[in-house]
């Protein structure tokens, strides 16, 4: 089914008729080839499986620029990209970057709680 046909199907028949779960699961499994320590795949299409956002953490990203990381993810999902309308890579981080980000968010949250 092409993108437009899939989108029209979603809008005409209803989101509950076409589930994104098989594609979510498939994308998650494929991303395992990037040897991620954390991955989150989010259906941003409202349930019809045409658009996804990804957050991924992998040691394989060490020493690579953001563009190279995105290319790695896109290469892993080359066949799936033929079936979906949009893919947004929200985060492509190394484990150290992820840890720093989590610590920063935690300290910001603690600071906000202290000021309240």
UniProtKB/TrEMBL annotation:
N-terminal signal peptide: 1-36
PANTHER family: BOLA-LIKE PROTEIN 2 (PTHR12735:SF27), BOLA-LIKE PROTEIN-RELATED (PTHR12735)
Pfam families tied to this protein: BolA
One Gene Ontology term from the biological process aspect of the record: protein maturation
Keywords of the record: Signal
Positions of region (Disordered): 95-116
A Gene Ontology term for the protein's cellular component: cytosol
Family designation: Belongs to the BolA/IbaG family.
Keyword Cell membrane belongs to the record: no
Name the UniProt record assigns to this protein: BolA-like family protein
């Amino acid at each position: 089914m092409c993108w437009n046909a899939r989108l029209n199907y979603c809008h005409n028949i209803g989101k509950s008729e076409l589930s994104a779960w098989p594609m979510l699961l498939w994308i998650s499994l494929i991303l395992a080839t990037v040897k991620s320590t954390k991955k989150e795949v989010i259906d941003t299409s409202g349930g019809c499986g045409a658009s996804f956002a990804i957050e991924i953490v992998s040691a394989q990203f060490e020493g690579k620029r953001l563009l190279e990381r995105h290319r790695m993810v896109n290469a892993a999902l080359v066949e799936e990209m033929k079936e979906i309308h949009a893919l947004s890579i929200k985060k492509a981080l190394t484990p150290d970057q992820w840890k720093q980000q989590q610590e920063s968010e935690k300290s910001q949250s603690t600071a906000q709680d202290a000021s309240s």
